[in-house]
Amino acid sequence: MSGHSKWSKVKHQKESTDAAKGKIFTKMASSIIIAVKEGGGIADPASNFRLRLAIEKARSVNMPKENIERAIEKGKGKSGEGSLERVVYEAYGPGKSGLIIEAATDNHQRAAAEVKNTLDRGGGVLASPGSVSYLFKHAGMLIINKDNINIDSAMNLAIEAGGDDIEEMGDKYIIWTDPSKLHQVAEYIGKKGITLTASELIYKPTITTKLSDGEKKQVQNLVSALSDIEDVQKVYTSLDDETNLS
Description:
Layout: H1 3-38, H2 49-60, H3 65-75, E1 85-92, E2 98-105, H4 108-121, E3 125-127, E4 136-145, H5 151-161, E5 165-169, E6 172-177, H6 182-191, E7 198-205, H7 213-227, E8 232-237
Antiparallel strand pairs: 1-2, 1-3, 2-8, 4-6, 4-7, 5-6
GO cellular component, one term: cytoplasm
Main location: cytoplasm
Family: Belongs to the TACO1 family.
């Protein structure tokens, strides 16, 4: 490979990596801003659990400290920029699968148009409020790697911490809890010296959709396309797999 060709390839790879990283940081910043706003302007993660979760997630993707601090200031309303708001869309995907799409946007019309166009291209359709959400419930989710603890100890830990249920999925244990108890359960587990790989509020499917392998692939592609939209924070599906854990 000539020097010029190698330079061009490396430059292109770096630009692609930087663009992807920038998109992730933008989503993390939006999550932090919303957490501060919905927490009544409280910018102390010790007193605002949603903010603490958002900051932990931002740090997990190596978001710079100054970016995090800037997002917190925006959430407090000191930036002078447009105001972000949380919005939730409901949709049907391939095979009549249910989709919950969480977004944070300062332009509802733009966000709705981008979500609708992406759904149309991916075999989905935007649904009216309430027509899909009944397939889900809001839940607190905590994830522990199996390397850290055995199943019996994990079950006892979940009970002691105040969790509602525990299940095995691949190399993970998932502890489910009421959203209002997520902070309490996470604190208890941390004090026991067990490391959590994730702790967040999600939409958990209560009625799952069985699909063919081809339909599952279509749903996964649609979720990926929706997740690429800058305003979209998270996409949840009614599939009975690990789609909602990523």
